[in-house]
Amino acid sequence: MLQAETLQLLCLTASSGVPLFSRGSTKQLPFSIIGSLNGVHMFGAGHGAQLSSCETDRGSRVVWGVFQESLMLIAVSGSGGSAISELQLRRLLENVWNCMVMILGQDELANIRNVERLKRELRSCYRLIDMLLERVSDDQGFMGDLTQCADCLLSSNSSLLQEALDSFAQAAESEFGCLLVHGRVAQATEKWWSRLTSQEVVVLSILVHSLSGASSCDYPVFLPQGSPTVAIRLLSFQLLPGVHVCILCGPKPSLYKAENELVSRFWSTLVENLRICMEQADRSTLPPSVSLRWDVQALLLINRESRRAVTVCPRVRGGAPAEAVPLLSSGRRLELLRLFYTFAMTRYFTSQETSVSPASPTSEDFSQGFTHVPVQCYLVTDECKCYGLQSPQHQLFLLMDLSVPTFALRTVATQTLSAITAATGF
Questions:
Q1: Which of 119, 131, 172, 268 is most deeply buried (CB count within 10 A of its CB)?
Q2: Distance separating alpha carbons of residues 102 and 281, to the nearest angstrom
Q3: Is residue 17's pLDDT more than 90?
């Protein structure tokens, strides 16, 4: 009987089922269960059936994924993690695979020559994998692992920082540059957004965030979609604690030249601007010019064209009346936001990234056969009211107080979307 208490990730060879690693829960699954999970998948494949997921009567969920017909990843969410959806687990497997490709390259994973050697090499991926496991249910407001959109910070002095980043990247003979503040993209060059896939931007941001202890780094990376077999240099520099600038480049410049000449030339005069950006990030991912209603508990705004996203989870209520109920904990609000995003994307909203087949068990029966695509939905729970809005350019997922009348949800959502886009151009 599967009794895992928390989230656990398994990696095995697809052909023989040899375990390569297990991450997540401190209490590892017994080998007999790991063998059973692999065996039932192989049995189905041998009879022409593809087993992708299942759920036990005790609330545990298992999702399988085979990549390049070489490695099998299995995500196990025990009864203690019953709130983790199938979509979240599926995205977790995709992100873990992308991280392994980014560190080791696709050839090393697709053509296994020595299992013991691969086990040792995979250890270099453990920190990234652990960060992905933590982000499934963290309270820091990162949603990129689920939405596959870059977590962004909309700074108030964006034009000045953008100009500095473009000049820095050009001097380093690169078209790919990015400025991250506490793991969120504050600014990026045009090619960073247009040439890299959203999945690559997400895993690169996580990688740079994981290197926060180093003042500078010269790291070879493979782009999972753009360059899975040829390594590219990732140069990363810490400008301030929590603030990093990075570029993707070729053999030039050297790490010494970039750190001692270029960084000081383009960023030394902007230290105060970077501090202001950090202070803003500690308060909100939105600039001070954007004022939200006091009854907004949390929101997720996605730009569908650029695959960027902003998550807001207010710490205090601004201008709330005395009779207003206290805010839910930030962890609980972010959990509800993830659940509502999954609810809306698997049942009502559709996109190239999250489309589900008509036979998918997560799709609603009534929506099948209709020619139109829903553009708005709402949900009323015991803790909050949720509203989702989809336009050709944006998706907005909003959590509001129970005190907001249901008939007013649409108005609040459209006003919130207009206020953010008008002030930031997002």
A1: 172
A2: 28
A3: no
pLDDT band of residue 13 (cuts 50, 70, 90) is very high
Closest CA to 88 of 152, 144, 21: 144
Two tokens, residue 206: 């996580």
At 273, is the secondary structure helix, strand, or coil? Answer: helix
Q: Which residues of 51-65 are buried (b: 16+ CB within 10 A; e: fewer)?
A: eeeeeeeeebbbbbb
Cα 152 from Cα 135, distance rounded (Å): 15
Q: DSSP letter at 81?
A: G
Q: What is the Cα–Cα distance from 182 to 242, expressed in whole angstroms?
A: 5
d(CA 342, CA 345): 5
CB atoms within 10 A of CB 208: 22
Mean pLDDT, rounded, for 233-252: 94
Nearest partner of 216 among 183, 251, 262, 250, judged by Cα: 262
Burial of residue 152 (number of CB atoms within 10 Å: 0-12, 13-18, 19+): buried
Least confident interval from 154-163, 226-235, 285-294, 352-361: 352-361
Pairing of strands 308-312, 150-151: parallel
What residues does 279 pair with on adjacent strands? none
DSSP annotation of 327 reads P
Mean pLDDT of 179-201: 95
Strands 61-67 and 71-77: antiparallel
> Which residue from 161, 136, 185, 148 is spatially nearest to 335, judged by alpha carbons?
136
First to last CA, the chain: 49
Across the range 15-19, mean pLDDT stands at: 89
Residue 357: pLDDT band with limits 50, 70, 90: very low
